[in-house]
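Design a sequence for this backbone.
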């Protein structure tokens, strides 16, 4: 679920819900029929409008959603953390066959073209949704880009798409996956557990100034990470940011 301001574009595409599933604690994925003519780049988002909402408030019936599915995949997929907000309670009750409207996909949180420049994704929580799309498409296309994903959650149970991401790491020799669980039981989790800082990044990025960085997650986390990267010499133009609120 994104925290971006709604652009209030006229909805263009109607999509029907095929299925939904819980993919992590309090996190739901929704799979939609891909409307005819609907095209997008991995990492794009679009505004979703609910049909016949219980309320007429535009802020309740519309939200900007990142597309977690990759362009090559047959279905569209969105994912969100479920909370007590009116919008999220509405979508949690969606049943198969529910129809919504999507507008034109857009956004600049997409993989850079220069294959010689590494990409480092530093992601928190449900901020993984556009990155799942980017990594899936890069793996499918067998892109030569060197990709590193540092993905922080509290526990494995709260981390969405772990199975997918581990699978991409097995298939794609150019992709390094670094999951971090900051509150996991040490008897059940042997991986990284520290907060993301300069030391953590340097552990997995040999030349910290070489990559283009993609930061996505809660606004406070994104702000702190951006400041940290700038302090260690990363150019501001090499940092791309998406902020997710509404957890």
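Sequence:
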């Amino acid at each position: 679920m994104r925290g971006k301001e709604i652009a209030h574009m006229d909805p263009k595409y109607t999509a029907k819900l095929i299925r939904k599933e819980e993919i992590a604690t309090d996190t739901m994925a929704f799979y939609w029929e891909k409307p005819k003519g609907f095209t997008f780049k991995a990492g794009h988002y679009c505004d979703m409008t609910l049909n016949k909402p219980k309320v007429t408030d535009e802020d309740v019936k519309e939200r900007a959603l990142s597309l977690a599915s990759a362009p090559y995949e047959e279905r569209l997929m969105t994912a969100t953390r479920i909370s007590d907000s009116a919008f999220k309670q509405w979508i949690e009750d969606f049943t198969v066959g529910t129809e919504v409207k999507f507008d034109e996909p857009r956004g600049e949180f997409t993989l850079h073209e220069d294959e010689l420049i590494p990409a480092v994704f530093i992601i928190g929580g449900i901020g993984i949704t556009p990155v799942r799309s980017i990594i899936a498409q890069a793996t499918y296309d067998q892109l030569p880009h060197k990709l590193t994903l540092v993905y922080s959650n509290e526990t494995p149970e709260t981390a969405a798409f772990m199975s997918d991401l581990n699978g991409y790491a097995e298939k794609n020799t150019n992709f390094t996956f670094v999951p971090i669980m900051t509150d996991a039981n040490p008897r059940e989790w042997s991986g990284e557990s520290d907060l993301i800082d300069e030391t953590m990044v340097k552990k997995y990025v040999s030349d910290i100034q070489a990559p283009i960085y993609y930061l996505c997650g809660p606004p406070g986390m994104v702000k702190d990470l951006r400041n940290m990267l700038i302090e260690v010499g990363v150019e501001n133009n090499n940092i791309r940011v998406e902020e997710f609120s509404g957890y």
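Helices lie at 58-61, 86-92, 128-141, 162-171, 198-204, 219-231.
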